[in-house]
Structure formats: structure tokens, C-alpha cells
Amino acid sequence: MKADLLVTPQQFVWEETFELRSGDQLEGFELIYETYGELNASASNAVLICHALSGNHHAAGRHAADDTKPGWWDSAIGPGKPIDTNRFYVVSLNNLGGCHGSSGPLSTNPVTGNPYGPSFPTVTVSDWVRSQALLADHLGVETFAAIIGGSLGGMQVLQWSIDFPQRVAHAVVIAAAPKLSAQNIAFNEIARHAITSDPEFQDGNYRTQNTNPDHGLGIARMIGHVTYLSANGMGTKFGRELKSGDITSATDVEFQVESYLQYQGANFAKTFDANTYIRMTHALDYFDPAQDNNDNLAATLAKATAQFLVISFSSDWRFSPARSAEIVDGLVEAKKNVVSACIESEHGHDSFLLPIERYFEVLGGYLKRVGAEK
Amino acid sequence: MKADLLVTPQQFVWEETFELRSGDQLEGFELIYETYGELNASASNAVLICHALSGNHHAAGRHAADDTKPGWWDSAIGPGKPIDTNRFYVVSLNNLGGCHGSSGPLSTNPVTGNPYGPSFPTVTVSDWVRSQALLADHLGVETFAAIIGGSLGGMQVLQWSIDFPQRVAHAVVIAAAPKLSAQNIAFNEIARHAITSDPEFQDGNYRTQNTNPDHGLGIARMIGHVTYLSANGMGTKFGRELKSGDITSATDVEFQVESYLQYQGANFAKTFDANTYIRMTHALDYFDPAQDNNDNLAATLAKATAQFLVISFSSDWRFSPARSAEIVDGLVEAKKNVVSACIESEHGHDSFLLPIERYFEVLGGYLKRVGAEK
Questions:
Q1: What is the predicted ipTM?
Q2: pTM across the whole model
Q3: Which of A95, A309, B109, B138 is deepest in the core (most CB within 10 A)?
Q4: Based on the domain organization, do A42 and A20 belong to the same domain?
């Protein structure tokens, strides 16, 4: 079975000037991506996966047979899985500004020959979608059978349906929102502040200074973890168990939840780039497609021609079911074809990454009909 | 009117050994406190105010006629106010381990002659309550007419009712919980981690090193602010307003909420001691009076003889109405005299500090009956 899922990342190179929404431009860029399954002759079975804040192109399968861990959404993507690679040609990329192989702060600026570092421009969800459209052109995909994403990925799906309505047949928007709340922006700001106030951040020039803002990145990740879980879920997972017996002099980790968070924070700092983290959170903050339409989401979605599946999770308080309902309401008001489901789960926002039975029934059941209608 | 409320902090000195729950001991301690109103001849009109995480003894009035700001709960304490100083003799202190004048990390260890700094021992809610009882002895107060506190202050009120049942006639527990959730412990842990991973923390010896973990303390405060407010309240207060027009290069503060948080964080770092912050959050984490009774809260509360008022706020998600209901349920099961109210407010946990009309009607109305029953 493993052999079926051995994948090799590929590189897409765009050599022309690429204008960004900020007004800045990139003199070309590279995107790293993976594909799973085979594109059919009519190129009608392509599915695009859009990743969330800390995701990357490696969504499924293994790079080597002895890899201990598969891609981040391997539970959902593969032969016979909800996103069935026996039927679909699945494309997954690392977004612009990322730190896993696509052009980003760790890349070399072709104009200067130096690493971009903090000079890599601000990227937005609409910039990502346009770059993904160029990748689709390159792959010979005019219209995606489905575009699927959770959280920040779901925002990209929405943007696709607005910016390239003819190129997306089905839009699957999971655990997302039409724009962030002030609370969400605030959590992102604290995370960024933790990173930029770390003396090792060096105004973003940590690579050339041979430092790394490990502490700041760790705190950012810890905040993410707590807010991506639900209060009840954390209670179930950790309770209030003390790590070492009783209250002593309180100088070290004592509750199990503290130990878990510190591990997650330290681990993240080793594998994720701080300048990328800042750009990804800004892309989240700035996402607000209705802004140019006097905050009228229905009017903004009027252009969309896709059919929509909108999924939320009962205990997700960072992208709550009420926020998904705003998307559904906008689609209904715009007279679009939409089905939605709120999945019972105590795993909070993290639910969208987990193989929850009911969730996969809804997702897989919906996708079974995709393509079959033709 | 201002002249009525001019107050001068006073010092209570305890010169004997004080055993702490951690097993450590203090060779004496000092508590700074203020009083408002007059103790009556029978010493039956005393009210104790217990402060929360970042509070102090200066709850009401002004230290000088030209002080720009009064004490932190001046809206509630004063002549004709809900905690009416025309009727009550109100006592407010800075808890052990604090940084506003009571013995704490900033004080000198009488044994060594050096500042305590990080060597100041772990203090718990029950330690505080015992030290407050010594202060009450000093003031000639055998039984408090009422003990009142919000958040961590409410935990002290609960502990009083259990540890010194005869010394508290009315217990007013506001926006509290019988113990923290794993999520709450996690937020505290992130705040502590932000402080201790700040290079200027210097293992807690920042004073002797002439540094201060401003960044870490700032982050801790920012996390506090976001979690003490409600998502809706933040939306109302800040919306998604950009501070400066449009998306540019994302190098500085852009949303109003970011500006607010950065100001609050920086300001807090100037006025609060990091070692104290760590101790206060640990006291919160450790509070769990039912722990020694096989987690049976009702059995733990069986000893209490006070009458209880338990208040919560609809949008408080850090100490939610459901957590206050756990206290009420425990009291009801233990057949205690309890009334409770959940106040509609969009201000989250911060509500307990605000002069919300319905809240003050409930609090003031309840306290009008206190003492009148005799």
C-alpha cells in the first residue's frame, strides 16, 4: 500500500513579473507541489488542495518508503479515501511566501542575488489564488472538479470561486470564515509580536545573523494550539493532571498540558520560518473579499458559479459554526447551490485535520457525486 | 467628594514564621492594605476585598487629591456605591507575593538581607487566606460581614468560606470557577513561557542584572487582554478597522486592535513584576479546593456556613457562567444558602471590573441586606 503513495515533489517556475495586491511585485517565482492520482484525458478530474497557516505541499503519501510520517492530510487523500485518488488527480502546493520550497523569505531574490528574508513582500489570499491558477495552466487544468481547503485554505477556496468562477466546479470550504474577527486578528498579532520582539528575530534578518527566534515562534505555536483546541477537548486530553506529583517550588513544567505545549512550541520553531509565519498570518488578517463590495458578502459571491459544500465543527471557537453560517447565508442570499454540515466534535478548530467519521462521510459522500454528474 | 475618598496605604507586619502550603516558609511578612469607611463598635461591618491576578490593595479612592485615577474598583466601593462605605468598613490588601508593597519577589529576604527575586516561594490561595486572617486579627475583625472578590479574588472568597467558615457571614464570588480548566492553565503557561523565555528575564534575576523582561510581560498581558474580552465585545470595540488605510508592506501596526494590545502590553511591563506574575498565575493554576475531597466540591463546601452570592457574566469565556454554575451546584448539593445571577454583558471576563448597571443592582441589592438582618 505504501508504494501506491510514494510521491516526489515537483517545481513550477514562473519567469514573468507577478504583480501583488500590495503593489509590490515578484520578478518570477517558484512553487513546489505534489500530485496524487492521474489526470484523465479530458483533464476534468483535478482537485486542488489549499493549505492552512502552517501547512505545505506535502499533503499525502510518503517521500520515501521508510518515512515515519505521511503528508499532513494523508487520512483524507488516497485510494478509496474521501478525496479518492483512484478517481481524482489531486494537486497540493506550498503557497507563495511559504518556507517549504516555494518562493518565500528563505528563497533568493533573483534581482539582488541575496535571500529575501524580511524583504519578501506581503502576500494575500488573492495573490495565492492567481499563482495557483498559473500552476493549473501549467498542469493543463482549465477547471478543477473541486477545490478544497480548511481554515486559511477554505478562504482560498472562497477566493477561487469569486476570482475564477469558471475554473472551479465544486468549492469545499471547511472551518473557515468570510473574514477574521477582531479576536482572531488579536491572537495573530500576539503571535507576531512574540516573534518580532524575540531579540533573535533581528528585524527578520536572523538567517544572515545566524540566529533564530525560537522562543517567539514557540510562543506563537503555543497560542495557536490552545486556540485551535476546544476547552472541553483540552480537558479531556489533559485534564488537570500534574506531571510530577504535587505543588513544589513551581520552577518547572508541572501540568501535562504545559509539557505538551512546550514540546509543540519547540518543535515548530525547528521546522517553520518566522518571516513566513508573519506573512501567513497577515494573509489571514487581510482576507475580506466583501470589503470591496461595501461588506456585502452576497453581492461578492454573486459571480461564483461553483457548487458549494461548507463544513464547520461544533466546538471550533476560532472559526465557529456561526462564521461558516455567514458564508452559507451569503451563498443562499446570492442564490447559489450550497449544502452545509456542522460536525459534532470536541476537537475545536483542529477537527478539520482529523479523520472524524461523520466529517469524512460528508466530505467523501459529497465528492462521490463530483464528476459523476457528467 | 474627592476628599471623602483620600486614602493612605498602611502596613501590617507579621514577625513570626509563616508556613506555606508548598512546604516552604517565610520568616515573617508584610502586607500593604487600605481601608475605606469606619469599623463599628461591634466590629461587625467589615468587608474584605480580594484582588485578582494583576490587582493590588488600592481598590478605591485616591492617594492624593490630584491623582488622575482612583483605585481599580472605585466604581463599586465608596459612599452610596454598591459596597457602601457609609455602612461598611472595607479592607483591601495586596496579596503575599505581590509587587505593590506586600512581601514578594521585590522585597528583601530578612534571612539573607538580599532581595527575594525568583527565590520568593510559591504562594497559594489558601496561604493568602491565612495571611488575610492574620491581618483581620490585627484589625480586630473576628468575622467579616462579607468577603468579596472577582476571578482569582472569587477563589479566595471560596477558600475563606471553607477554611474559616465562622469568620465570613456572606461570601460574594464573582466570575470565578471551582478550579481552572486545562485551557486556562494553558493560557497561563504561555504567558509564563513568554516571560521566562525573554532573555532579559535572567532566570528571574532581572533586578540584579538591571534588565526587565518587558517583551515577555507585554505578551503575557496581551494574551490576558484577548482572553478577558469576548469575541463580540472585541468586534464592537475594534471591528476590523485598519489603522492606516490599506494593506501596505505589513511591517507595522495596522489594525486598531493591534495598536491597543501593544499599548496595553508595554504599559503593563512598566508597572508589574514578572516574578509576581508567575506566582499569581501559579496560584490560579493550583487552586482546586475539592482536590483533597476526591474532587467532591459539595463535600468540600460542607464546612461553609456563609451565605453565598455567585455572579457570572454571559460573555465570559475564560470563567464562563457554566463554571460559576458548578460552584452553585456544589453549594446547593451541600444545602447551603446561595443566590446567583448571570449578568448579560458583552465585555467578557473584564465585566467583573466594570460598572454594569444590572451587575451593580444585584451586588448592591444583596449587600443592602447584609448586616440589616441583625
A1: 0.88
A2: 0.92
A3: A95
A4: yes
